Amino acid sequence: MVNITLFLIDHYYLSVPLFIAIILLIRSNAQKGGKRISCQELTALANADNMLLVDLRPSDDFEKGHITGAINIPFNTLENSTYKLQNSDKSIVLVCEMGSQSGNAGEILNKEGLNDILILKGGIGEWRQSNLPLV
After folding, report:
1. Residue 12: its pLDDT value, please?
2. 3 with 42, same domain?
3. Are 59 and 46 contained in the same domain?
4. Residue 14 within a domain
5. Please, is 112 exposed, middle or buried when counting C-beta atoms within 10 Å of its C-beta (0-12, 13-18, 19+)?
6. How many domains does the chain have?
């Protein structure tokens, strides 16, 4: 560990750009596909009836439990199903199991011209952990 630290200090002109590149990569990946929202923000949007909730999980997982009002469009069928979302004047909230696929789904929807995309941070896993209800 000491050798790595000494190398990074001695070669700061290489280390600084490396750290900047890593930070930029992490930051761009975190913003991929849409704005992240919390479970509380999702609840507020649902109460205001100002969103269309899209569950990206496979149909079997969706049937085992989903957030009230969600429609199921599995991630692997999303590209062929974007027409279902085209005429929505509401924000589209994407939900997957852990929050990782939603960013990719948001990118697909952005390419189709849908821009008001929100992503539930942590996905259904975070929703369950917050003890919020599934139907």
Report:
1. 81
2. no
3. yes
4. yes
5. middle
6. 2
pLDDT digits (tens, 9 = 90+) for 101-116: 999 999 999 998 888 8
Instruction: Kindly state the tokens that stand for 57.
Output: 């999980």
Residues 6+ apart with CB under 8 A from 121: 36, 37, 38, 39, 99
Q: What is the CATH number of the domain that holds 104?
A: 3.40.250.10
Full residue range of the structural domain in which residue 40 is found:
33-129
* pLDDT tens readout for residues 29-69: 656 788 999 999 999 988 888 899 999 999 999 999 999 99
Query: Cα separation of 5 and 111, whole Å?
Result: 43
Clarify whether residues 9 and 42 are in a common domain: no
Tokens 């917050």 found at: 130
Whether pTM > 0.85 for this model: the answer is: no
Tell which residue, 125, 127, 116, 100, has the closest CA to residue 39: 127
**Edge-to-edge strand order for the sheet containing 35-37?**
35-37, 117-120, 91-95, 51-55, 71-72
Residue 51 in any domain: the answer is yes
Burial class (CB within 10 angstroms; exposed 0-12, middle 13-18, buried 19+) of 105: buried
